[in-house]
What we know:
Layout: E1 6-7, H1 26-37, H2 53-62, E2 67-71, E3 73-74, E4 79-80, H3 82-89, E5 95-100, H4 103-106, H5 108-121, E6 127-129, H6 146-155, E7 159-162, H7 179-184, E8 190-193, H8 200-209, E9 213-216, H9 226-233, H10 252-260, H11 269-281
Parallel strand pairs: 1-2, 2-5, 5-6, 6-7, 7-8, 8-9
Antiparallel strand pairs: 3-4
Pfam family, one: Amidohydro_2
Keywords: Lyase
Organism: Comamonas squillarum
Amino acid sequence: MSLPVIDMRCRPAFLHNFFGATPGSPEHDTARWLNRRVGTRGSDKHFEESLTQEGFLKAVRDAGLSQAVVVGRHTPSQHLPNDTIHQIVQGHSELLGIAGVDPVLQGEQAALDEIERAIKVLGLRGIDLEPGFGDPARHPDDPVYWPVYERARELGVPVFLMSGPTTPDPSFNDPARLAKVAQAFPDLPLVVYHGYWPRVQEAIGLAFRYANVYLVPDMYVFQPGHQAYVQAANQFLGDQLLFGSSYPFRPIGQSIEDFLALGFDEAVLPRLLHGNAARILGL
Length: 283
């Protein structure tokens, strides 16, 4: 089966030490470990191809992606500046960028100004928030984030949120705390990276109730409990589930192959791999 694919979470190794930018470093070893942990077959050094911009573009093209989404991040522990994301994606039609902001670290007005600049000047396609990685950790319904949701709605761009088991305090990986936001901003796409795994059933229940909640389980769709994502996508969740490889923590091509083998109905696969992302990103 040959289908166009948008990879909603795909970053080059050179972007940060966290992604293995420095061979021989503890972070590089951790990137290799995580690749093995989430099911990489073959060499766990595959991601070293993306230690350069040219290598990253080759990895994207070799995998046959239509587009790859490179995500910015702004947390106390990791800052991937929006200008850096812009530099990576500019001039390459197969690359799209998401801007990271943190109204706690930046201050509300500075964060709102940065959103305007990222979308209108840098041409990035959405906003990334990581409440559970804050200091202190917060939930997405914390009042500090509401101006960000409002500005994203005004600009017509989606908001991406981090979730999952790497949240420093697992109690902040809580799907229920997105409900108020989804209800207050029904026309704002809320796209959840890592799909709140391992709280899969609760995440699916949230998406069942709110059609503006989208799940990107990325590398966790290959972990125990993934069958619930597949079953839901074959029923009501077909317009709300999206593909992501989580590269460089998993090979892009292998992730596409493995995704196709999970048991999704053929009729729903075009939406999961391309259509839903294209709609949310305004492609």
